[in-house]
Structures are given as C-alpha cells and as structure tokens.
C-alpha cells in the first residue's frame, strides 16, 4: 500500500525581514513525501487501512525533517502539517494524514500522554508540563496539480495561543503530485516570526498545559 | 563588502521510484538559495564590483550548503548549476555580475574539481518567480545522463531591490537515464567537455 516515490526537504534561515536582525535567525523546515495514492481513480469506502499504514511513514518523515534542519529537538517550537492530493484522488484521501502526521511529530518531540487513556477518552489529572507536543497540529489540505503550493499553518507545539509564533510556510514539490499521487507534508520551526511584535501569550508564560495556553 | 542576506533556503529532492521503477541508489539534488539586497537597485552603475565580490562569497557559501545537505564528501558531487533572479529595481547585468566573474572558483572548491563550465540561467522576476537551474556534469559537460534542471523559487522573494541567487549540486544524474551518449564512467575529465 505504501510506495514512497520521492522526498523533498526544505530548510530556510530567515535573518531579517527588513527590520533589526535577531541574534539567531529563525529556522523553518518542511518535508514533502510523494506517495502513490492507492485509491486514485475510484471511490473506495474503507480507506482506514492507509491511515494505519502511514504511521511509520510519518515517523520517518519527522526524523528526516529534523535531521535536515540540523537543530536539536529541544529547539523545535512550532509545527504544522498538510497534504496535496493529485487530481485522480479526493480530498478525503488527504484527511488520512491527520492522525499519522500529527502523531509522528508529537512522538518525535516527546509526547508523554497516556495512549490508553487518550484512546478511551478518560482524563488523566496531571500537574505541570506533561511532555511536549500538547497542542493540536494545525493543518491544511487541498486537491491540486503538479507543483501546487500549500500554505501550511504553524503554531506552538504546547500551546496553540502563542501569538508570536502563528505562522505559515508555503510548501510545494515541483512536478508533484501527479494525478495518482499524494504529497504528505510536515513542517517545523524554531520559534517566533522574525520581527514578531503584536503581543499575546509568550511561550515562557504557558501555564495551563492544556494544549491551548 | 559582504552580502546583506535576508534569507537562506536549502532544499533536497530525492527520487526513489520513477514510473514504477526503483531508482537505486536514489537520485539526489540539493538546491541552496540566498536572498540578498541588491546594492545597485534603482540606479545605473558602470562598476559592479560589489556584486562580483558577493558572487565569490555566495559561490562558497551556497556550494558548501548543498554538499552539506547531501551529506557527501565534496568529491562525490556529480553535477552542478547556478542561477539568479533579479528583482524589478535591478537589471539583468546584476545577475551576470554575481554569477560569472567570481562565483565559479569557490563553488568548484566546494565540490572538489569541476573542470566543466557551470551551466547558468538568469532572469528578472517578482516574488515567487521560478527559475530552472540548468545542470551539467561537473567534470565533463557532454555527459548526457546528467543534463537536467531543478526549479528554484522563494515564495517571498525577490523584492524589487533584492536578488535570489541559486546553486544546485547533485550526487547523481537523472533517475532513469537511457538515451545513450557519453557515460560518466567514460570521461577524461580534463578539458571540461568529455
């Protein structure tokens, strides 16, 4: 079911955007993996086997992206994910990425949640910071032609409301997706927009550890 | 004077399967781009020395970024190319000043050797403009399996007074080369052609 045809990594350092350069540039990275779409060209009711099969793909992509970014995992401050489905597929095929894409980066970042409790919907009462990767991984998806660009939203890994880190990165793989392919995307950055100055919650003030604030 | 760099972008494109056929080892192309301020934006300058110096600086920086992204020894690089996109307040000659006089020598140092001409492309363009960076074997321009190109583009550049400078280095040719011609293992590698 899994046929990875191509991988594409993108890493950028933003030194300034015509304002005072920060001591350390903002590093942003994204990876697009071009996979064959096993459901292209027809309607398939049960597509969940693909979601399961994508789990190891997501983890491998997250590791490849972190390696390309050449930063320790502790410096990853924001994340996002997305999918571009080729023309013979449907948007729902891109939705297959929600669980494995999000899980992959959380796992990499040291998510310490109780998986059984998470699955059964029970609440575990914990004090302090329960690991990393607490916030929802923001995402976008679309059906598009080869070379289509996707703006992948980015937010803090532990608290979605960290305003200075709201961002998006444009990701595209030249030549992909072909009609029978899907480009699955992960993105991570080291922090704040390069000249962030519109206030709001700062990462050092995260207090509730509920994924939001 | 050294370049005022706003942004550095590095991409690696790895092809594992093409038309259902495994590509073994996968082909890998690395692209490094710098977004820089154009010191001659908005005026005519007869002398372009600042850009020539910036070209020398970027030949080294971008060449090394590519080799590092591929994770290879410099000598394992196989093909290369270069390109520039000049924002609308500049002129095409500004791209030429960066690319041609002095960028080549440090780039060749970064990939060890490089007897062949570094193929190039240049244009003027706006934000997100794409340029196809031509690629050729670094030691023998006639190696047919390594004729290729890689698309280079920065979503928010070049602004009017900026230039996007791109260098591509690969450790491979096209994914499934099968149209004959001079093969990489047949080259002399001395005259830059064969």
Characterize the structure shown.
The complex is a heterodimer of chains A (213) and B (194). Chain A contains five helices and seven strands. In chain A, 21% of the residues lie in helices and 26% in strands. By secondary structure, chain A is of the alpha+beta class. In chain A, strands 1, 2, 3, 4, 5, 6 and 7 form a seven-stranded mixed sheet that branches. The relative contact order of chain A is 0.24. Chain A has a single domain (4-205), classed as 60s Ribosomal Protein L30, Chain: A, CATH 3.30.1330. Chain B is an alpha+beta fold and 194 residues long. Chain B has a single domain (5-186), classed as BB2672 (60s Ribosomal Protein L30, Chain: A), CATH 3.30.1330. Helices cover 20% and strands 35% of the residues of chain B. Chain B has helices at residues 49-70, 92-99, 104-111, and strands spanning 5-18, 21-37, 79-86, 120-124, 130-137, 148-153, 162-170. In chain B, strands 1, 2, 3, 4, 5, 6 and 7 form a seven-stranded mixed sheet that branches. In chain B, strand 1 and strand 2 (21-37) form a beta hairpin. Chain B is globular, with a radius of gyration of 17 Å. The N and C termini of chain B lie far apart (38 Å). The A-B interface holds A 3-18, 68, 147, 149, 170, 173-175 and B 5-18, 69, 130, 150-151, 155.
Describe the SSE topology.
The complex is a heterodimer of chains A (213) and B (194).
Chain A: E1 4-14, E2 26-36, H1 48-53, H2 55-69, E3 78-85, H3 91-95, H4 98-109, H5 115-120, E4 139-143, E5 150-156, E6 167-171, E7 181-189
Parallel strand pairs in A: 3-4
Antiparallel strand pairs in A: 1-2, 2-7, 3-5, 3-7, 5-6
Helix pairs in contact in A: 2-4
Chain B: E1 5-18, E2 21-37, H1 49-70, E3 79-86, H2 92-99, H3 104-111, E4 120-124, E5 130-137, E6 148-153, E7 162-170
Parallel strand pairs in B: 3-4
Antiparallel strand pairs in B: 1-2, 2-7, 3-5, 3-7, 5-6
Helix pairs in contact in B: 1-2, 1-3
How far is the first residue's CA from the last residue's CA of chain A? 39 Å
Largest interface, chains and sizes: A-B, 23 and 19 residues
Note the run of SSEs of chain B as H and E: EEHEHHEEEE
Query: How many domains of chain A?
Result: 1
> Structural class of the secondary structure composition of chain B?
alpha+beta
């Amino acid at each position: 079911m899994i046929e990875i045809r191509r991988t594409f990594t993108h890493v950028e350092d933003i030194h300034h955007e015509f304002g005072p350069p920060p001591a350390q540039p903002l590093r942003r990275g994204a990876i697009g993996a071009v996979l064959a779409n096993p459901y292209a060209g027809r309607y398939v009711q049960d597509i969940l086997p693909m979601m399961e099969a994508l789990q190891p793909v997501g983890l491998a992509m997250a590791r490849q992206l972190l390696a390309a970014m050449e930063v320790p995992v502790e410096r990853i401050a924001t994340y996002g994910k997305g999918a571009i489905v080729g023309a013979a597929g449907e948007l729902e095929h891109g939705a297959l990425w929600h669980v494995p894409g999000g899980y992959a980066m959380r796992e990499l970042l040291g998510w310490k949640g109780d998986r059984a409790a998470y699955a059964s919907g029970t609440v575990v009462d914990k004090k302090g910071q329960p690991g990393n990767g607490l916030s929802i991984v923001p995402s976008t998806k679309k059906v598009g032609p080869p070379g289509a660009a996707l703006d992948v939203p980015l937010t803090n890994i532990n608290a979605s409301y960290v305003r200075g880190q709201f961002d998006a990165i444009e990701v595209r793989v030249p030549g992909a997706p072909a009609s029978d392919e899907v480009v699955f995307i992960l993105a991570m950055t080291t922090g704040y927009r390069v000249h962030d100055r519109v206030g709001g919650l700062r990462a050092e003030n995260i207090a509730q550890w509920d994924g939001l604030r | 004077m050294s370049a005022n760099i706003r942004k550095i972008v590095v991409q690696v494109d790895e092809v594992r399967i093409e038309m259902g056929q495994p590509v073994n080892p996968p082909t890998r192309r690395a692209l490094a781009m710098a977004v820089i301020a154009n010191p001659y934006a908005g005026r005519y300058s007869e002398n372009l020395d600042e850009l020539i110096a910036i070209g020398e600086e970027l030949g080294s920086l971008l060449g090394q970024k590519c080799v590092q992204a591929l994770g290879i020894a410099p000598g394992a690089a196989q093909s290369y190319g270069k390109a520039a996109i000049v924002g609308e307040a500049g002129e095409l000659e500004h791209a030429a000043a960066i690319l041609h006089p002095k960028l080549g020598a440090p780039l060749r140092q970064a990939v060890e050797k490089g007897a062949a001409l570094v193929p190039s492309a240049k244009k003027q363009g706006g934000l997100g403009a794409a340029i196809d960076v031509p690629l050729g074997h670094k030691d023998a321009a006639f190696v047919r399996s390594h004729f290729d190109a890689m698309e280079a583009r920065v979503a928010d550049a070049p602004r009017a007074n900026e230039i996007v400078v791109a260098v591509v280095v690969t450790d491979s040719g096209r994914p499934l080369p099968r149209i004959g011609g001079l093969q990489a293992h047949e080259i002399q590698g001395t005259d830059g052609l064969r």
